[in-house]
Write a structure and sequence with these properties.
441 residues, mainly alpha, 13 helices
């Protein structure tokens, strides 16, 4: 739920939240006023950013399963395979805050292009290595680590750049389109295609991934601001390397301090962290819950999980309409209501069909939450702080996730799988009730 990414207070300094309705009591339209939001309506510049993000996500969806398959072909030691997975998960935790610092310090368009160009060269070289020689598991882990580290910088720059490409009243639509596009590229196209390409040749998915990064890098270079600037305001850089490191780490904390001082963003971040605990617990047991409780046939598990993909697609596409009709903060509250009901339904379901419907609704809510909360931060945080604030929110969400996964494992082992879902529903219910007071316009 928290891919949500989120010094002056966001309420303008007078204690009143900046209006999201244009100040006249009417919600600003996020669909261009014609009721038909879409990528083309958002402009050609956003279309290129959207294409770069979707193409890059497709490459990720090809590479990650291929890395796991390649690791399994190199070794059957679960510890070694787990090391490859962990290597790809560590960089956002280790470097997430610093990625935001440099996204706020460097030209964001060039940062995106350079990050993807380096990833294209790295994974292209890796593909050549796989094709011509035997690969050690340490090389797999190193490649996964470096690619994830560069991805952290790319994500921070892309999030901070969006408000320069899209008007403020269309940010919810834009974020929703990004959610929908990357969901399709990752789940509907990339994941099924990865195994097919790996069967053709172990190096093929990585070669295709290199091409996707190269295309995304070229697209990033074509981006030109239509609303603001892609370059954050210049700041004086210390002369010595030691001083620069000290300033960078101090700047990394600015994002956290901003969130803490801004009441609404602080509450969105805390609510996201708590719901991430429930979501990660649900993800940890969903395969067993589907097979053992919902009685999904093994051959039908992929079809069952496709409900989550189509739900995310629908939620992303509906985000702009939710913001237009309800407003961002009320929309977030009602999204939580839908997610709570969906998790509760999934918890009591004992058949694949209602379970799949509940999973689809839940995934739709998660995609909408990500789009709406991202739009709120992009609209209310100054341009020079967006990289750091967004990275701080993503890092906070990632830190909360392991708590839910570990807790679900212990609870499921001690009490069975349904209590894990009951606990997740209870967490969402508490968060939803809290949001009615915490997220007021």
């Amino acid at each position: 739920m928290t891919d949500t990414t989120i010094s002056m207070p966001a309420d303008g300094g007078d204690g009143r939240r900046a209006p999201t309705d244009g100040g006249d009591g009417r919600r600003a339209p996020t669909d261009g006023g014609d009721g038909r939001p879409g990528v083309a309506m958002l402009g050609g510049v956003f279309g290129r950013l959207w294409t770069a993000a979707v193409v890059s996500r497709l490459g990720d969806a090809l590479r990650n399963p291929a890395l796991a398959l390649l690791a399994a072909s190199v070794t059957r030691d679960p510890r070694a395979i787990a090391a490859v997975v962990v290597a790809g998960q560590l960089p956002p935790l280790l470097f997430g805050l610093l990625g935001g610092v440099y996204a706020d310090r460097w030209d964001r368009r060039r940062t995106m292009a350079a990050s993807d160009a380096l990833r294209a060269a790295l994974v292209g070289g890796f593909a050549l290595l796989v094709a011509t020689s035997e690969v050690h598991v340490a090389v797999l882990a190193g490649c996964a680590f470096l690619l994830a580290a560069l991805g952290t910088l790319f994500d921070a720059a892309a999030f901070a750049m969006l408000p320069a490409l899209v008007p403020a009243d269309r940010l919810a639509v834009a974020n929703g389109r990004l959610q929908a596009g990357t969901a399709v590229a990752g789940g509907l196209v990339g994941a099924p295609l990865a195994g097919v390409l790996f069967a053709v040749g172990a190096a093929v998915p990585f070669a295709v991934d290199a091409v996707t990064f190269a295309v995304a890098a070229l697209l990033a270079l074509t981006l030109r601001p239509t609303v603001g600037s892609l370059r954050p305001p210049a700041s004086r850089t210390p002369d010595s390397a030691t001083a620069r490191r000290r300033v960078a780490w101090r700047a990394a904390g600015d994002g956290l301090r901003w969130i803490w001082r801004d009441r609404t963003l602080r509450r969105i971040t805390l609510l996201s962290m708590v719901t991430n605990i429930a979501i990660s617990g649900l993800i940890a047991v969903i395969v067993l819950y589907a097979l053992d409780v919902l009685k999904v046939p093994t051959t039908g598990y992929g079809l069952f999980m496709s409900a989550a993909l189509f739900g995310a697609l629908g939620g992303g596409l509906l985000s702009g309409r939710i913001a237009a009709r309800l407003g961002t903060l009320p929309g977030l509250r009602w999204v939580l209501v839908a997610e709570t009901l969906a998790v509760a339904t999934l918890a009591v379901a004992r058949h694949p069909v209602p379970g799949a419907i509940a999973l689809a609704v839940f995934s739709a809510g998660t995609a909408s939450w990500n789009a709406l909360s991202s739009a709120y931060g992009q609209r209310n945080v100054p341009a020079e702080m967006l990289g750091r604030v967004g990275s701080a929110q993503r890092t906070a969400g990632l830190l909360a996730a392991p708590v839910g996964a570990v807790g679900a494992g212990f609870l499921g082992s001690a009490a069975g799988l349904p209590p894990v879902l009951y606990a997740a529903a209870a967490v969402f219910a508490v968060v939803t009730l809290s949001s009615w007071r915490a997220l007021r316009s």
